[in-house]
Amino acid sequence: MLGIIAGILVPVHIPLEWGKYFSVALLAALDSLLGAGKAVFEGRFNLGLFVSGFITNTFLATLLTFAGDRLGVELYLAAIITFGVRIFQDLSIIRVYLFKRLSTAVPQGVA
């Protein structure tokens, strides 16, 4: 929550050349966060696994983007598609867990 507030209040200007790198790193980080949320609901969250996945995914996605830039190939698109699909899948699973949890919290016949 503090990060969101700081992001809104502190203007950050990212150079245009870094746009691809930043967007891919942001998607990788979001994928890791949603994966961690899904793991919490499934009762298998591991902090070490989360941190290592967060760092590894973000680094690898950025490295893939850098290699693609050097080769003249838009490899960052592969990372965007992959992370995008995983983000929507994880979000869908989390939504189902939340719906089940909330629907069992409300007594039947009360809505």
Defining traits:
111 residues, mainly alpha, elongated
- Record field, number of beta strands: 0
- Report Rg: 18 Å
How confident is the prediction overall: mean pLDDT?
Answer: 88
- Low-confidence segments, given as residue ranges, are none
SSE pattern: HHHH
Number of helices: 4
Tell me the overall shape: elongated
Major β-sheet profile: none
Which strand-content bin applies to the residues? under 5%
Architecture overview:
With 111 residues, the protein is mostly helical. It has 4 helices and no strands. The chain has helices at residues 2-9, 19-42, 47-71, 76-105. The longest helix has 30 residues, at 76-105. It is elongated and about 60 Å long. The two termini are 30 Å apart. The mean pLDDT is 88.
Brief rundown of the structure:
Helix content is 78%, strand content 0%.
SSE blueprint:
Layout: H1 2-9, H2 19-42, H3 47-71, H4 76-105
Helix pairs in contact: 2-3, 2-4
